[in-house]
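Subject: sequence -> structure tokens, single chain

Hey, anyone have a minute? Need the predicted structure for the following. Not urgent.
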Amino acid sequence: MNEQLEALLRTIIHPETEHNIVDSGFVDRADMGEDGSIAITLRFQKARDPFAQRIKQRVEQLIATTYPDKRSIVIIREAAPKPRRQENVTTTTEITNIIAIASGKGGVGKSTVTANLAVALRQRGYNVGILDADIYGPSQTKMFGVEGYIPEAERDEEGHDFIIPAQSLGITIMSIGFFIKPTDALMWRGGMAVNALHQLIHQTRWGKLDYLLVDLPPGTGDIHLSIINELKISGAVIVSTPQQVAVADVVRGVEMFRHEQVNIPVLGVVENMAWFTPEELPDNRYYIFGKGGAKRYAEEAGIELLGQVPIIQSIMEGSDNGSPATGVDMRVEEFYQSIAEKVVEKLPAEC
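Reply:
Had a minute. Here:
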């Protein structure tokens, strides 16, 4: 290991060990070639260490600042053996209700519904959190304007490590998006994604929450089964558009929660993008994606229709601007407050 590089890397502290990354054993290689190029390999003791990308960025910035004329590469190697889990240690004990927000297929606005429902519940005075469990397409960071947030870690007196979540509009937010670059393609096998979720669920400093909304990936798969096994889900909300192709996928989602080995109550269905009404023609409704498909299915399946949300421009703008429309547009708030009211009736919690 190059002595100059070693001394430089000793200035970087890992948030969990509170020691420099050299003494903590995270630097596998730090060499300077004859042509002046620099190669650094980082190896972390914890599988999918949530601070790996952050430390890599610090190393890259430090090398670029100290050696601006040299070519450099920083590589993260897979951790060796899977670390022993902190059994029976979880930060979810003070959460009253956990609600899974699911959809049979992508593109129906599930994450948008999650964000706006969270704001509606917060407006009612409840303590609300969001777990962005959509491992392959996290979007809550953008919807709440916290894309640049870098979670810190803290350790309690018993030596347990916890991750500090983001706060936006009074809502507690944890997402895998905090630990990856927006431009990165997240190519994880199922087991790796499940391990990452386990850590986010049980090590996030949630505090006392009345409602934790879990934004699931579309479809059914390993992530869904992991969430069901890891958390005591109070109920599920299914999101769909009126299209028949979307409703057909909803059936599979509902049956997953209703399966005898899962047995999670389906609180109801939200029909998103139900119609479009131009501002200049407030009495007109245009059913762009079909009319009432999700509503009909809910009636046939004996599931409550929690609400129909139309296409409103401010919903899209709010998602892009980091401020869910329920907090800024009375037209949108009306729809989501109605949905929130029905959810609270089914899963009451004290303010």
